[in-house]
Prior knowledge:
This protein is an all-beta fold. Helices cover 0% and strands 59% of the residues. The chain has no helices and eleven strands. It has strands at residues 3-16, 27-41, 55-65, 68-77, 80-83, 92-94, 99-107, 112-119, 126-129, 137-141, 146-153. The strands form two sheets. Strands 1-2-3-4-7-8-11 form a seven-stranded antiparallel beta sheet, with no helix packed on it. The radius of gyration is 21 Å and the shape is elongated. The N and C termini lie far apart (52 Å).
Amino acid sequence: TSAAHDDGYELQYIQQFPWLPKPFNGLQVFANTTIQKATGVFPGGASELPFFTPRLANVGLVYSYKGFTGRFTWHDHSYYLQSYSATPAAKTYVEDAPSEDVSLEYQFSPRYVIFLDGVNIRDMGNNQYNVNMYTRNTQLQDIGRRFNFGVSGRY
């Protein structure tokens, strides 16, 4: 049988600056974090819950003015268990992986927007390991950076 308990909290902050002179009044900053802890006995008698991420964080800056919107976001998460094993050396973890995204768009009519999105712009990889990420690396994923460009419409 399984019995688990999850405790945690989430904090979020958003600040707009409408009192600044134009064009700076379109600035906005935001930050959020989630910190949580799971305790108990999980399926199969596991002491840890696979894919449970104890800490997440995002920080960003948004600028909007006359149809233009730009956004920069930094993301991070703590390491987490990917696969459980009763043998401690066989457990697989994913390391923390900070990354940054950028988004630019311009609404040139009430129906159409042209956009450019950059995901993982610093090209950070995703490292999986057993027990110790420096001595028992099991997989390095190079997910690469991605850029999307296009026109979007509402009909």
